[in-house]
Automatic annotation (TrEMBL):
UniProt key word Oxidoreductase: yes
Pfam families the record matches: Pyr_redox_3
Keywords carried by this UniProt record: Oxidoreductase
PANTHER family given in the database record: FLAVIN-BINDING MONOOXYGENASE-LIKE PROTEIN (AFU_ORTHOLOGUE AFUA_4G09220) (PTHR43539), FLAVIN-CONTAINING MONOOXYGENASE (PTHR43539:SF78)
Organism listed in the record: Stackebrandtia endophytica
UniProt GO molecular function: flavin adenine dinucleotide binding; monooxygenase activity
Oxidoreductase as UniProt keyword: yes
InterPro entries documented for this protein: Auxin_biosynth/cation_transpt (IPR050982), FAD/NAD-bd_sf (IPR036188)
Name this polypeptide is given: Thioredoxin reductase
Domain of life (superkingdom): Bacteria
Amino acid sequence: MTEAARRIHTVVVIGAGPIGLAAASHLHERGITPVVIESGTHAGAAISDWGHIRLFSPWKFNTDAAARRLLDTAGWTPPHPDHLPTGDELIEQYLRPLAELTPLSDHIRYRTTVVAVSREHRDKTRSLDREAHPYIVRTRHDDGEHLDIVADAVIDASGTWGHSNPLGAHGLPAPGEGDAREHISEPLPDVLGRQRQRFAGRHTLVVGTGHSAANTLLLLAELAAETPDTRITWAIRDQSAARAYGGGDADALPARGALGTRLKDLVASGRIELVRGLTIERMTPSGTTVTLSGRQNDEVAELEVHTVVPATGFRPDLDILREVRLELDPIVDTPARLGPLVDPNHHSCGTVPPHGERELAHPDDGFYIVGMKSYGRAPTFLMATGFEQVRSIAAALAGDREAADEVRLELPETGVCSSQAVTEDAAGNVVFARNSSCCGEPAGKPSAPQGLATGLAHGYSGGVRPLPVAAGCCGATVSP
């Protein structure tokens, strides 16, 4: 055993979601004690907010190998590998059993929030013998008690849920956005369930071009079919919604392809009003409505709605890490070596190469940001990618450099790569540039079989809720 392996005994893992529990599973398997800090009352608590959404990818891509080995010893019955789980199923059939029925149950602290991370007796500015000092993870329990946890390493798997990008232009909240909070929903509201009354018979504006926006728009369309006074407006900053429509029948993930096809049909039929080229510059709440003022194609624009759904993507909360020496990409707030690999200006989830401990390391030895938070502002993270991240990190912490560097990710190709130039023709059909390719290869050459877009697009929000034929949304069920 190497010196590095001898000194790593305890690792704090922030977050008991899919990636945090996968990290804990790999650490446990390596003989390292994980201490998992979870702010919610159960494993995967953040996922409960979008538990009604169905994932694009089947179970076989949504569970970690070390976690499965732990579950197998507890007599776990795995779900059917080809079934597309909802967020709630992901929790109840995988995360809760992993957290409650395996040895990990003794290592998870619920209702506890991480307030800050630092080095013992060393703030960010002090370098002398810095690596000889362990980490201090300051926590606060819901009852108000503060506790400092000493650890040899820290893995931040806290994700980005709850930290949405602003609705306003320029990357900044619009003036009045804070005052309009009661008119702004969560990014993936349960339109047909517990929040139905908020949307039925009212005017909703959905802002964004990702899969989160598409999901909410489809659910609102189903609600409108049942409650005719329900009005739906969809606002995007671009001139074309082609990227949101995706590849349709050409998509190797049928659920994802159907999502875009149905959305396009709803816009064409007028059941969803699409506002293109809109930037929001001010929000003014007034009673039961809020007025959004801005510009549309250089013309003054104004919309009055009851509720705004901010499907605008997420960004990492780095406040708790102010005393940690980080090296971040200046564009997307990822670990510096990971940034060029995930920059959405050049990559989609289908073109991000496998990566591990070396790409995720920071100047403070033994500190890592993983999972959705490791992708910063890039909307292309997938669970399977995170599982490989933490496997590599656990190997490195255990001193197994060979295993840490042998980073692999085997997933089928997606069929459609969203980094291709995409637009609409005069008839409104989605068109992919003929001479573009996913990974910089010559046109016509298939992308490498490390295509990652078989998990959750746009973080954890890339699902599609199966709609019954009678629902009136294109008259088809899109998920098995």
